[in-house]
Design a protein that fits this description.
Elements: H1 3-16, H2 20-30, E1 32-35, H3 41-48, E2 57-62, E3 69-70, E4 72-76, H4 82-105, H5 116-125, E5 134-138, E6 143-147, E7 158-163, E8 171-173, E9 176-181, E10 188-192, E11 199-203, E12 206-211, E13 214-224, E14 227-230, E15 232-237
Antiparallel strand pairs: 1-11, 2-4, 3-6, 4-5, 5-15, 6-13, 7-11, 7-15, 8-14, 9-10, 9-13, 12-13
Length: 243
């Protein structure tokens, strides 16, 4: 077994060890959940090393051209790197259970199948067949405006971002930020501090919240604060494909 296979096995073991009860509790309380040390540093570096390889990607986006902020990102093309396919496949079942619970609470009829391949088949049958995992690159002064990643009629309500760079070593600033827009209340911010190899699971669009008159939906957005120095790379794992 070579070093790469060993590292991928380590990642697979860490995915198997996720406490989904704790993840569900964090998501219920805050709309996001932190996973510590999912990716080994070597895997993070391997993913960052893919960024200059233009043949691995289908689209290159510059945030400033679209008014999204400053910085850039690239959407992977199929076939995806094996590690990203593994992350999508192994994270999906636990997230689908939570997503189905949320939809039941919010009286949304959609239910998600047990496996990610089944869900991809559903996306592709609806004409959403372009892969959505992406690598993001930010330099000094870059930032990402608050937004939602909605790419078609079918939207999986949770996604995962992996920090591939080391805070205070590779970059400073650049915190992951979420906001929660609550009816008739002030917007609530949430800042998630991550280390290299950590992940954050978060609500894409909205989530259920218990109010005095029952469950209601709150609108969620996410972004990245200004990079003060250095360079920050992130892997975004989105579970629905795009039109």
């Amino acid at each position: 077994m070579n070093i790469q296979e060993t590292l991928y096995q380590q990642t697979g073991k860490r995915l198997q060890d996720i406490d989904w009860t704790d993840v569900s509790s964090q998501l219920t309380a805050y709309g996001c959940a932190r996973l510590k040390g999912v990716l080994p540093p070597e895997v993070c570096d391997e993913l960052v090393g893919l960024y200059p390889q233009t043949d691995r990607f289908r689209t290159h986006i510059h945030l400033a051209r679209h008014g999204f902020g400053k910085g850039e990102y690239k959407y992977f093309s199929y076939p995806l790197p094996d590690i990203i396919t593994t992350l999508r496949r192994d994270l999906y079942p636990g997230l689908a259970d939570i997503a189905n619970q949320w939809n039941e609470l919010m009286n949304i009829d959609v239910r998600y199948p047990c496996t990610h391949q089944e869900y991809l088949d559903r996306c592709h049958a609806a004409g959403q067949d372009r892969p959505t995992p992406l690598l993001l690159q930010y330099g000094e002064g870059d930032y990402n405006c608050l937004h939602q990643d909605l790419y078609g009629e079918l939207v999986f309500p949770l996604q995962v971002a992996f920090l591939l760079s080391a805070p205070e070593e590779d970059f400073t600033g650049g915190e992951f930020v979420m906001t929660e827009q609550r009816p008739r209340m002030q917007t609530r911010p949430e800042v998630v501090s991550l280390k290299k190899g950590d992940a954050v699971i978060f609500a894409v669009h909205h989530r259920p919240v218990q109010g005095t008159r029952g469950i209601y939906r709150v609108n969620m957005r996410h972004g990245v604060s200004k990079i003060r120095s250095g360079r920050r790379h992130t892997l975004g794992v989105i579970f629905h494909d795009a039109q």
